[in-house]
Amino acid sequence: MLKIIIFAPPKKGQKKVINMIKKVSFSLLVTMMLFMSGCVNIVDPPVEVVIDNTIPDGSFDYSTVKTLNMSIYIDDKYNSEYNYYVELLDANPFTNPMANVLNAGVTKGSSPFNSEMTIAQTITKIYVRQTDPLQRKSVKVVNIEQGSSFICDFRTSSSSSAAAQSVTKSDEPVSSKTVDAYLESASSYPLPSTYTTLDAGTTSMVTLMASNYYVPAGVTLVDKINTGWQGFSLYISGKVVFTNATADFYCSSNAKFVILSGGELVIERAGTSLSQVKVLVAVNEGGKLTINTNLSLGGGYNDANPGAKIINDGIVDMSGKLSMANYAMVINNGTMNINEMDITNYTKVINHSTLNIATNVRMSTNNGLFRNNNILMVGGTFITTNTKCTVENNHYFQVTKLDAYNCGINLINNCQIKAQEITIQQGTITCGDGSLIGCEKFTGADAKVTMMGNSMFAVVDLKLFPTTEVSFNTTRNTTFTGVQDGTDIPLLIIENVSNPTERNAMSLNGNIQAVFEGTVGDNYLKNIQSGVTLSDEPVYGVDECGCNDLIPENGGEGDDPHDINFPIQVADNSVYTFAMEDRWPDYGDYDMNDVVFQISGFNYTQNSSNEVTQFSFDILPIAAGSTIKTTVCLQFDELASGSISGLTGVMGSREVGQAKENLTLFPDFHFDAFGQTSHILVNTSSRAVSATSSTYTYTVTFSSPIAKSKLNINKLNFYIYLVNDGTDRKEVHLGGFAPSSKVQSSTYGYIDGNNMVWGIMIPSGDFAYPKESVTITNAYPNFTNWATSFGANNVDWYLFPNSAGVFHL
Predict the structure, then answer these.
(1) pLDDT tens, residue by residue, 215-240
(2) Interval 230-252 mean pLDDT
(3) pLDDT band at 289, cuts 50/70/90?
(4) How far apart are alpha carbons 109 and 805 in whole angstroms?
């Protein structure tokens, strides 16, 4: 004996009741099924259906979609003369070539493009693409997780802006217009009124004591001076040379070498060291310091007791390495040519003029500062190995490689940096208003770049270095953040991403225009905030200023704008699966496979007012788990009868006598869709017939243009009917949808007192429908949780089937 539970459909609002359980013999049951099916083929077998009694009463209609309203303001540059094309997509078109257009249209001037559309509940971001009259494309992202109405604004004047940071817009050397805290000159140390003269008569070694000494012009002393251990002051207008023959070159605290105009100090002694507190070397304008060996500066303890200091207003030539430590300082107001630098332990390098470093700079200092206020040229690698290193550029800084990958950096750029390569890990870069950072290779990991106002960061071929390879490689969510200043938006240009398949490689925050000229993978960008504009060529550009000589030309296919030809064709490649039960108002086996078909290929012919004149769609029949003759129909809920003037489609016909426009799509689903000669199970179990169907296209022409919102998927009322007695017919619709005017009986919106429905629309073409007699609650474990939360939880329940409970074609 088999057991079947029969549900008497309760009135709307009644509590769930199982009215009766009847035991019937197997023979009687078969007789009933044969009577109902009218055939002797395999029929829909009876099962004991147990519907979860935790699904609450209420108005939940089991919808998997939501309605979204959005107003898009374009950045009109043509005074309303030309139309801009606007598209709303479900993915980033710059990273995902399969991104689907959900809606599209045109607008011009200050009038927004207003979009009402219905999309899957699972979509949390909408990407809006603007195409201007020069065919330049730019994209913004809108987060739609909360709310239903949004604004997307491409206008630069309306974007949000944050407070500017303490950086300086610079188009000339900072030293010429701003008082720097370290703007100290060698002229501050003039020749005193009393001193001991060391002249040409000095023939034996002189040991300098705690006094003032002067070498006059025209006098050259080679290895005639012993610096000693006392706080002397040596003023040089002539020439003093220390070679390897010098007995001592040690300086006590407060010792001074002051090279006056016309004077020269030459140091050739290997391992020269100035490593005592407050030792000073001051080179006046017209003076020269030549060091043909390595030099060490240091000896300090704190800011009050600093180490050795070089102040250069003239010329310094150093063929060896300059090593700085322990609060040492270099202030350059003239020209310094150094072979190599090693900087550590609270030291400072301040350049107000021209500083040339032939090979490498290594900066490992804690809380150290390297500030360039004019011209800094590094022929090799400038490497930092401490997160508290600060490198500040206020004019022009050129370097072969800026390497901050080992331990980060705090890089502040207020004017122009050009590098063949920049690498940074866990450090920060701040780009001031009007500044430029240009490099041919960029590698970032966990780094943060903040760009202010009219700044530009370009990873392009600079035509400055011998290599031509351009690459941009970021990992671990390197972040670029733009801060708008008025209408000035920072510009990031990336010519080639070398690791486009990396996941969560970077984020774009704030207000910034990011131009990706190469390919970027779909998962490359972890986060894109709403103020970000993506494009494949510069659209906004940056204003010319003294710090940026890489001003990009605004791209476009030709220089002349052109308008759009109407009508336009808008294609939406979304796919929806309709899965329906045929036993309404009885539950049946609740496997939602009696009628299964897909809807896709939406195409809209639109005029200049974004109204639709013609509409087409495709239907692909999938399965027929019913043993009853079933007719598949479509009612346009927003269109009164007479709105359609024409219909094309192999199976389609308009139905007369309806209050709203109704189309008959398949008069007999089994026969027309699958070529069957009886109402037999198709594609629902191993015992069912296996059959494939063609895709059917239906094209509707409207009597007059209609609003596109009337064709949203939630306004397209796909349904089936089973019995039509001439005065009342039995239709089955999705929950919440109204029947056609051919139905006279009450339907309660096809939601019964147990809050159960007989049809579900799935916003996916990959929906695996339940096997014959497997309830949808068993086929999809998350279905019940979704329903009991009124759609708040597990909105993607249809992506996680119980594989054993679904049918696999």
Answers:
(1) 999 999 998 888 877 889 999 999 99
(2) 83
(3) very high
(4) 55
The tokens for 280 are 């000073």
Least Cα distance to 255 among 235, 283, 238 occurs for: 235
Report the sign of the C-alpha dihedral through residues 707, 711, 713, 715, in that order.
Answer: positive
DSSP state at residue 16:
P
Residue 645, both tokens: 């003037």
The radius of gyration of the chain from alpha carbons, rounded to an integer in Å, stands at 40
Q: Where are the alpha helices (DSSP H) in 248-377?
A: none
Cβ burial of 286 (10 Å; 0-12, 13-18, 19+) is middle
Cβ proximity of 84 and 152 under 8 Å:
no
Residue 626: closest CA among 673, 576, 694, 663: 673
Q: How many CB atoms lie within 10 A of CB 712?
A: 19
Tokens, residue 250: 């040690």
Two structure tokens written together for 91: 């993915």
Closest listed residue to residue 631, CA positions, set 596, 669, 599: 669
Between 544 and 463, whose confidence is greater? 463
Long-range contacts of 517-524 (CB under 8 A, 24+ apart): 517/493, 518/494, 520/94, 520/95, 521/95, 522/91, 522/92, 522/95, 522/96, 523/95, 524/95, 524/497, 524/500
Report CA torsion sign: 730, 732, 735, 737.
negative
Enter the DSSP assignment of 553: P
d(CA 644, CA 663) in angstroms, rounded, equals 10
Q: Pull the structure tokens for residue 274.
A: 């100035």
State how far the Cα of 445 lies from the Cα of 460, in Å rounded to an integer: 19
Does a cis peptide bond (omega within 30 degrees of 0) precede residue 500?
Answer: no
Question: Residue 430, SS3?
Answer: strand
d(Cα 665, Cα 673) in Å, to the nearest integer? 10
Distance (Å, rounded) from C-alpha 38 to C-alpha 678?
Answer: 9
Q: Is the backbone peptide bond immediately before 621 cis, with ω within 30 degrees of 0? A: no
Q: How far is CA 710 from CA 398, 610, 684, 706, in A?
A: 60, 12, 34, 7
Residue 193 makes CB contacts below 8 A (sequence gap 6+) with none
Half-sphere exposure (CA, 13 Å, Cβ side) for 525?
Answer: 21
Q: In the block, which residue shows the tokens 């701040």? A: 430
Give the span between the Cα atoms of 654 and 647, in whole angstroms: 7
Please state, as a whole number, how many other Cβ atoms lie within 10 Å of the Cβ of residue 307: 26
Pinpoint the alpha helices (H) of 616-764.
669-674
The answer to whether 584 and 471 have CB atoms below 8 angstroms apart is no
- For the whole model, what pTM was predicted? 0.84
* In 526-575, alpha helices (H): none
| CA dist 152 → 134, 141, 489, 638 (Å) | 21, 8, 16, 27
Q: Which residues of 646-684 are buried (b: 16+ CB within 10 A; e: fewer)?
A: eeebebbeebeebebbbbbbbeebbebbbebeebbbbbb
- Cα distances from 93 to residues 126, 195, 536, 662, 736, in angstroms, run 11, 77, 10, 36, 35
Who's near 166: CB < 8 A, 6+ residues apart? none
pLDDT, one tens digit per residue, over 509-530 is 999 999 998 888 889 999 999 9
Q: What is the C-alpha separation between 633 and 645, in angstroms, rounded?
A: 18
Give me the torsion for CA of 115, 118, 120, 125, rounded to 10°: 10
Q: What element of type H or E holds 785?
A: helix 783-788
Q: Are the CB atoms for 580 and 732 separated by under 8 Å?
A: yes
> pLDDT tens across 642-653, in order?
999 999 988 889
